[in-house]
Amino acid sequence: MEAIGFYIVYGFAWVLTLLPLPVLYILSDCIFPLIYYFPGYRRKVVRTNLVNSFPEKNIKEIIKIEKAYYHHLCDLFIETFKLIHMSNQETMQRLHMTNPELLDRLYNEGRDVAVVLGHFGNWELLACLPLYTKLQTVSIYKPLKDKHFDRFMNNLRSKNNMILSPMSGIIRDVVSLRQKNIRSLFAFITDQRPPKGEIKFWTKFLNQDTPVYLGAEKIASKYNMAVVFFNIQNVRRGYYTLTAELLFENSEGLPEHLITETHVRRLEEIIRQTPEQWVWTHRRWKYKREQANG
């Protein structure tokens, strides 16, 4: 039954996304009241997350961010499914990289790169990242519970020879590529919630105690990778810029947790600037420090 449901949804989405994006955005506007008002998709989660993250804001300001976020979420669904039919040329127009010369320099210097980013803007458009760099791109991901949807998303992300590496297999892939002398870029989405039993580090993020994965820091330090933050910004509806920000030229021997604290603070900065672009429906703060340590 799970497979039948997936293929029905996939078939409908495949046909629907033959329409141009301007038309699909009309559909996005129609979907918004359904997921915001009737009955509302994770409204309590979003409201709690926003109130706790921005205690300085009044309820009118919170609701304004909330509505803007749900509009963004509807667009995100539409834009992601549109990737089924989107050409590489259009994808690159939709996600314009402002400074590919940074990655070019690191490649020419024979460096591996650890990229850190969050669920901000439209990260799925990074399917076109291999078109911007000579580095072999590797996306570290957490497999989805629904194997059919997981395979669908992986197919979208890997169509330009991007390697998809599950969290459990990243060390193997790093070693394999280095043995072959293939200079690579390893992309870590770092704002996911670690499982309760795997929490090793807490920090303050958006006014709350927050557990953070240490994988990006550990791998970057072990192999002395350059550390780059990917800043994806929505410039107008359907169009984004990608700016690569060099956080550390070399990561070997840095103080423990410095890399993690640095990329967490940078993500926090851009969320505070444009909060509606982050994924507030995620139960990011499900675990409390005292519960996880108990």
Briefly characterize the structure.
This protein is α/β, with parallel strands linked by helices and 294 residues long. The protein has helices spanning 2-16, 21-36, 43-53, 59-82, 88-94, 100-108, 147-157, 170-179, 215-222, 258-273, 289-292, and strands at 95-97, 113-117, 136-141, 163-166, 184-189, 202-205, 208-211, 226-236, 239-248.
Give the topology.
Layout: H1 2-16, H2 21-36, H3 43-53, H4 59-82, H5 88-94, E1 95-97, H6 100-108, E2 113-117, E3 136-141, H7 147-157, E4 163-166, H8 170-179, E5 184-189, E6 202-205, E7 208-211, H9 215-222, E8 226-236, E9 239-248, H10 258-273, H11 289-292
Parallel strand pairs: 1-9, 2-5, 2-8, 3-4, 3-5
Antiparallel strand pairs: 6-7, 8-9
Helix pairs in contact: 2-4, 3-4
Your description of this structure?
- The mean pLDDT is 94.
- Helix content is 45%, strand content 18%.
- It is built from eleven helices and nine strands.
- The chain is globular.
- Helix 3 (43-53) packs across helix 4 (59-82).
- The protein folds into two domains: 2-82, no CATH class; 95-292, no CATH class.
- With 294 residues, the chain is of the alpha/beta class.
- The protein has a seven-stranded mixed beta sheet. Strands 6-7 form a two-stranded antiparallel ribbon.
